[in-house]
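Hi V.,

You were right to ask for the full record rather than a summary. Here it is.
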Amino acid sequence: MRLIELLEGVEMVPPYLSAIGEYMLKTVYPLRSEENARPSFQTVQFTTTAPARTVLEAGLGPRVIRFEASFNAGKLIKEYRIRPDSYMMDLSYRFEASSATVAGQSFETWLGPDVGSSGVEPKGRYSSGGMVASDGEHLLKDAFGLNDMLSWAALQDRYFIVALARKGSWLVGSEPFLQGFNIKWVTPLSGKSTSSVTVYAGPKDTDELEKTHLGLEKTIDFGWLTIVAKPIYVLLRYIYKIVGNYGLAIIILALLIKIVFYPLTVKQTRSMKKMQVVAPQIKALREKYKNDKERLNKEIMALYKKHEVNPMGGCLPMLIQFPVLFALIRVLPVVIDLRQAPFILWLHDLSEPDPYYITPILMGVAMILQQKMTPASDPKQAKMMMLMSVVFTFFFLNFSSGLVLYWLTGTVLQVAQQVWMNKSEQKAKTTAS
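Predicted structure:
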């Protein structure tokens, strides 16, 4: 039932136009067959003995649906072998010519022009790539000229993918297999021609894609931060299996990451406090040596050394955490796990922005509170950080609510940590006095 459910839920022929042209969109339907010479398969009527509605049931094995078309050149038999417990199906063609050969003729099968439209305009930000080819170990430059080496080709969107996989050459001659947003493969017409392809039409789910053993899991691309993003994604899924809610899983993930970076955060806070102590002395040195920059730099460095202050100590721990944030920006808006995943009350889909902007506003308030509690040696720097909090709030308005939830949780935890550190420091001073 899974393939049928998918095809019912995903609109395979999008009723819209785009820059690739009205003709291509209106004529290239999923798995369309056509002949490169008249009579065209588009004018030939296919017949089948299969019932109008075929229901697949688990445990009964795959079902084969057969279509036949006869015309002057011969007969074309088209078979779909659909598996009830998989998003994969097999499509095969067999052409039986009325004569020994059909010179110069071939038939093409097309996939295009798109995976389909969900009917909802996506607001999240995501990107897509182009042609990539590999020999199994290395990336290859010319993906368009590898007809015999091509293992699969696919059309995909944010969450779904339709992929074709076959053995042997995809084309006749040197014509491209990719035209616009459409993929095709060509089979010569001879006495008895056969052609087959495996189709995956389903979600970009890591487990399902790995089951195909085609390498389709590589279509889930986290970009140049894959080395960071993939472990985070694996950890998020593991947490979800325990708690059963992706909102809670994101909160726990934020807590775990905060624990990992806790030593760096403490170091950052202490460094900023030290900078706050020496700030008046640095100001005096700048006034004293304002006409001698070389002497000024030497005196400032000597002051840092005397008080064991690292001028980068406040920034470096924060910068180290940015790859994690960028990795989450790549992961949370694009993985299908969060699609339509609810959290609480108004958050019904963690892959989409907060419809009422509640979480981004709470995040902004928490960031401003954090900045007010964080020691700053330079008033200008404090104002800049406050402005950054406002900018971040507007920046996150259209981000997926799952990503905003992560950043909100991390900020609240940072505020709680700062409160605890301030109380501990005050208690230590009271005890010492």
